[in-house]
Design a protein that fits this description.
This protein has about 425 residues and is an alpha/beta fold. The chain has 14 helices and 13 strands. The protein has helices at about 15-20, 35-45, 55-65, 100-110, 130-135, 145-160, 210-215, 220-235, 245-260, 270-275, 285-300, 350-360, 385-390, 400, and strands at about 45-50, 70-75, 115-120, 135-140, 170-175, 180-185, 310-315, 320-325, 340-345, 370, 375-380, 405-410, 420-425. The chain has an 8-stranded mixed beta sheet, sandwiched between helices. A 5-stranded mixed beta sheet has the order 9-13-12-10-11. It starts with 15 loop residues before the first helix and ends with a strand.
Length: about 425
């Protein structure tokens, strides 16, 4: 066998150590693994999409370029802030205010001349299915659970059992301070992000009375702007946490609120962090999780070693600990399952109370739900005419509106899918 490996001065000199994995089979290689030039060509021809060009995304882009991938695309709607510079190493002071995706792509290509990175400055929700269908692997480096849920649902809906190319592996990484996780999702075949949603519990809520009357922290002022001020002044508009105009509006309202109560510390960056539930990132944790994600992408593209099955968690806040396990697919998952998820409820609770609980339940986390049964509408968030028509139901009890074990459909403007719940009354 002739190894497809250049000399130290050849075109693949930078990849000579990677090629050692690809030029000969090992004890764990896939039975269909073909060593040598065909596998290397497949690696170089694999078109990969990176979602997010922040702290994790910068690491992922660099790792992919250094791992032999030649055709990389990156999408991010954010611009560079000076606060990003302590960990997002592809950016400099001169780049503040510029597109993260465009600057990150240019920065990597400047160092890796043989790599082509195509940037997109925009929202993932603005792309059609045809856009995602062109990629072999999709890697997420997001700071938003809502965005993860959207791309997860989109990739599951794209799968056509008669077309194997429609199944796009999703490699997802996430970090929270000294903690992080990496996971590999094969849509419809393995546990998806929605199956694992209860592992990402929503942030504890601040009592509304505190927000409305006696805010004590800058975060309270921001929550007040998001929950109370937005509902008073812009109720007919859905809050988009990725829209800079919406974030600016919330920031200005929160800042005025903070001045009224002599509370310092409200900034645009803090407003964005509170509204999107962004937890400060640590560069070293980003590097660890990005490395795990890119190793999995490399294995998916080459079959040189088995893939992660399917969840790896890392924590470095108390010593260093990693653990890998297989998260099982849930039959009642609203995205990849086919059964309604059972929720036990008190029939004496009101519909308003149940709607509020959907935002707090780890397995739901729905902020603007519209509810209906097969026979009637329970509550519509919009348009205003339907909201007004169904508003009286909010004060009625679940026992008045539903029968024990009845299924309801729930939709939320943040997601492309409908959720099914079976409400079982407490006895």
């Amino acid at each position: 066998m002739v190894e497809y490996l250049s000399t130290n001065n050849g075109p693949r000199s930078r990849s000579q150590y990677i090629d050692k994995f690809l030029n000969k089979p090992g004890p764990s290689t896939d039975p269909d693994f073909v060593p040598g030039q065909p596998t290397i060509a497949n690696l170089e021809g694999s078109r990969v999409l990176v979602i997010g060009a922040g702290g994790l995304g910068c690491e992922i882009l660099k790792n992919l370029a250094m791992s032999g991938f030649k055709d990389i695309h990156v999408i991010d709607m954010d611009t560079i802030d000076v606060s990003n510079l302590n960990r997002q190493f592809l950016f400099g002071k001169d780049n503040v205010g510029m597109s993260k995706a465009e600057v990150a792509a240019a920065s990597v290509m400047e160092r890796c001349k043989d790599v082509r990175i195509t940037p997109f400055n925009g929202k993932i929700q603005d792309k059609e299915e045809d856009f995602y269908m062109q990629f072999k692997i999709i890697i997420c480096g997001l700071d938003s659970v809502e965005a993860r849920r959207w791309i997860n649902a989109t990739l599951v809906s794209m799968v056509d059992m008669d077309n194997p190319e429609s199944l796009k592996p999703l490699v997802d990484g996430g970090t929270e301070g000294f903690k992080g996780q990496a996971r590999v999702i094969l849509p419809t075949l393995t546990s998806c992000i929605e199956c694992q949603l209860d592992m990402h519990a929503p942030r504890a809520a601040v009592p509304l009375c505190t927000l409305a009357t006696i805010p004590r922290q800058p975060e309270h002022c921001i929550e007040w702007a998001k929950i109370i001020a937005w509902e008073e002044h812009r109720k007919d508009m859905i809050l988009d946490t990725d829209d800079p105009e919406h974030i600016t509006w919330l920031y200005e309202k929160a800042l005025n609120r903070a001045k009224e109560f002599n509370i310092p510390g409200v900034t645009y960056q803090m407003t964005q962090g509170v509204v999107k539930n962004i937890i400060p990132a640590i560069a070293s944790t980003n590097a660890i999780i990005a490395a795990a994600c890119c190793n999995e992408a490399f294995k998916l593209a080459t079959s040189c070693n088995p893939n992660l099955s399917n969840y790896m968690m890392y924590t470095g806040d108390d010593s260093i600990y990693t653990y890998t396990f297989e998260h099982e697919q849930k039959p009642d998952c609203p995205v990849c399952g086919n059964l309604a998820k059972t929720i036990v409820v008190n029939p004496k609770h009101t519909l308003q109370g149940f709607i509020d609980s959907l935002g707090e339940r780890p397995e739901a986390q729905l902020k603007k739900p519209t509810l209906r049964t097969e026979s009637k509408s329970l509550y519509f968030q919009s348009p205003p005419s339907l909201e007004e028509q169904t508003r009286p139901n909010l004060s009625k009890t679940l026992g008045e509106l539903l029968s024990d074990g009845e299924e309801i459909g729930v939709s939320d403007p943040a997601f492309t899918i409908d959720f099914k719940f079976k409400l079982v009354f407490q006895t």
